[in-house]
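Troubleshooting entry. The earlier prediction with FE3-S4 cluster gave an output that would not parse, so I re-checked the input for stray whitespace and re-submitted. Clean input:
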Amino acid sequence: MKQTLAEKLIAASLVEGEMIKGRRIGVRADQTLSHDLNGVMSYQAFEAMGLDRVKVELAVHYIDHNMIQADYKNSDDHRYLQDITAKIGVICSRPANGICHQLHLEHWARPGKTLIGGDSHTVAAGGIGMLSIGVGGFDGAMAMAGEPVFFTMPQIVNVRLTGKLQPFISAKNIILEVLRRISVNGGVGKILEYTGPGVDTLNVAERSTVTNMGQETGATTSVFPSDEQTRKWLRAYHREEQWIPLAADDGAVYDDTITINLSELEPLIALPHQPDKVVPVREVAGTRIDQVMMGSCTNGSLQDILSIAHILGGKTIHRDVDTGLYPATRTVIRESVARGAYDKILASGVRIFEPVCGGCNGCGFAPQTGGISLRTTPRNFLGRSGTASAQVYLVSPEVAAASALRGVITDPRDLNLPPITYEMPEVFTDDRDIFQPPSQEPETITIRRGPNSKPIPDMPGLPDIVSGEVLLALGDDITTDHIVPAGANYTPIRSNIPEFSKHVFKVVDDTFSARAQKAEGGFIVGGSNYGQGSSREQAAMVPRYLGIKAVIAKSFARLHLANMVNWGLLPLTFVNLVDHDKISQGDRLTFDAIALSEGQPMVIKNVTRGTDIYVVSPLCQDDLASIKAGGRINQVKNKKKP
Ligand code: F3S
């Protein structure tokens, strides 16, 4: 049978289930990726399960997210991560080598392999022809232990690219166009597979910008073929021998097709506070701005930096615009310096930061109160920048640089500059020795743990009768940034669940944590796409720690749903969506959890209103068993008991 590329990649790593659309399947990881923000929890889970060595071809850990060492907490975490990775067989990238997704693309990603990563933007590696899937920290730990990762066999959408990008209209505009067309949940249950003659015109870094931000559509992943561009990339990074050609079969059948003519794209911009609120830049051109943040894992490549330098060269940024740049990796910095790009950018007045996540997840470079910030990052969720009142817009590096010069949102073509042509270097600086290999004598390593490091709390199983108060009733598109805040004040305590629990839902309701503690738990009601965004499992763990038993929503984001299963927080969906409006904050609900069964609607009684509401869990029987046990970690521990 003719196969799409996505189907070929899944078939190569399938270990459980059948590749029938909508059925649950399990794939094994060839490679795993973790980072410091979610990694502490991953490795604690790995230890709590009594595991001592990873069981995958390659496991790499990156210290890139929590870089502000304002006190001991992040430094202690970095030491813990360097020790534990050395002990259990994981390669470690020390602080400020670069941002995980770009570093992985440069040094480790291989076409045809499967990468499971404890970060939602792991999907960036689809740009090199890998099956790359983002998971929460617990699933990341299971993948490292050689266990399958489960998801629903997706539909495969053909995103057919024709034409060629025009000057000052770079790859970011491709994915903004995809988001404009299909929205932040248009990719749910799907893989976006890029095909067509336009694909040949994009190098691997450009493809990775597209696959990276494909995450914002809710897609399981995105993938490009492995072709001569891929070979060129691997050759430039000194590993051409890892290249294999990969593409869909001629005549492969897709579930849907989207066609984008690259020649017709124009500069696009996502308005606050969702990546799919996309309009042409010209519609908002002239809007005054306060800040520009360039770089990140989405747009911190050499090509991006050279393009920014070309626009800023010989000029000074606007006096009212605080402008910063986070390059993606050390190699990008060295290559940019060698080409004189850093000099131009520095001379223009831009602040240049380390190659880390930084401002992207609110760990530095937060905008002023009510500030308008233009960012080349993949997300503009409310509060993610570290300033709850900020208005964040998402743009390409070219729009960002042009706007930094003028002080207002600007179409870069209006600067009337000559176009820049980028030729990827034949060979990049060889930085492969920046990684720390695992220890050959793991028994000699003593793991250092700081006082902020707290063990994963024990959480009981689901009671037979579940009762409580609705502590929050929310609308659509609640992100994990709404649930547990990002930012330099909060990320250092993400692995200290009792402490972090004081800040849950702070972005939407500052009283939630105290009320949940007083009520000893209860329910949350949500709209569509609940849990969209980042893979942070604390968005499931922390409400659960506070005693929340179930979230009742119209629908859930894939990654958050998996985290809920892992940490024992029951997801329920409304059988009739209009019932969402029949529950209010403060209502008392009750249901019989013994009745929970795959695909079986059941009744929740709204005791306050005297009404019945029909709900169903989107989980399969195995996942429901995890919920009843109080989460997967309890299941693994129970199995180990004599
Ligand atoms: Fe880091 Fe932001 Fe990318 S947090 S991994 S730069 S999406």
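This one parsed fine. The chain is about 30% helix and 20% strand.
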